[in-house]
């Protein structure tokens, strides 16, 4: 059985999909990714699909599932490297990649993850500030 | 024909080999890499072989060729993610990966490339200093 390798670069896990995904390979990848996110404490997953000629409903569902799993493990998922023809076919087939962020290439994907993280921290700060304000206001 | 995708991360090109390399795929990868090094001005190439169960003489030669091509284009090549079994087989077969640097994972590979670059700059500086000293010494 083929196994898709997961590369760690700083705070991010990178997966480059190059082989045809079978049910088994897809399940294995989801498991491996979940384990690696927990083991490394990574905050982002980048999935590169440069090599894919077609993204059918099976692959689309796999990407959505990975994004959902990562989300509950506190990691952002970004799909990068989609070919123009793949994007056109996706829209024509009426497939929407639910809950998946996309970026043009790996570098932009990394920027997107970094931006998403800093937004989150700012929101946390605002909540903290609001809480502080309340504490101060109360007698 | 399958084409191995080349990802750009900062100053480095990253290739993850997951498919069986045919003559044609190997040639295409060498061409694509040479073009991308020139187009992007990258200083390093990282080749991930986590997915490979076997590195035979064909793959070994391909890696050596890529390293040589990159070298003349002023880029360092580092092979990362070699499995223990692959390393053992390589030695047993008497294959030496000529001119190829290796590192345990992508992150260490990046460090190796950064270190190799700074060594080079230091040597250049020393040459410059020597030239300066000569110029100063001459009347």
Automatic annotation (TrEMBL), chains A, B:
Xref: Pfam families: STAS (PF01740)
Stretches assigned to the STAS domain: 2-113
Matching InterPro entries: Bact_StressResp_Reg, STAS_dom, STAS_dom_sf
Bias type Acidic residues, positions: 120-132
Chain spans, region Disordered: 119-139
Domain of life, source organism: Bacteria
PANTHER family according to UniProt: RSBT ANTAGONIST PROTEIN RSBS (PTHR33745:SF1), RSBT ANTAGONIST PROTEIN RSBS-RELATED (PTHR33745)
Descriptive protein name: STAS domain-containing protein
């Amino acid at each position: 059985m083929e196994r898709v390798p997961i590369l760690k670069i700083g705070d991010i896990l990178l997966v480059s999909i190059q082989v045809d995904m079978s049910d088994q390979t897809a399940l294995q990848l989801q498991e491996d990714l979940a384990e690696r996110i927990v083991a490394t404490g990574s905050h982002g997953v980048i999935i590169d699909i440069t090599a894919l000629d077609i993204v059918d409903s099976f692959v689309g569902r796999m990407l959505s599932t990975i994004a959902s799993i990562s989300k509950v493990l506190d990691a952002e998922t970004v799909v990068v490297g989609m070919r123009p023809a793949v994007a056109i076919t996706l829209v024509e087939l009426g497939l929407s990649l639910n809950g998946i962020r996309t970026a043009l290439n790996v570098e932009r994907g990394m920027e997107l993850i970094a931006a998403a993280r800093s937004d989150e921290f700012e929101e946390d700060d605002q909540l903290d500030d609001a809480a502080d304000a309340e504490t101060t206001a109360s007698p």
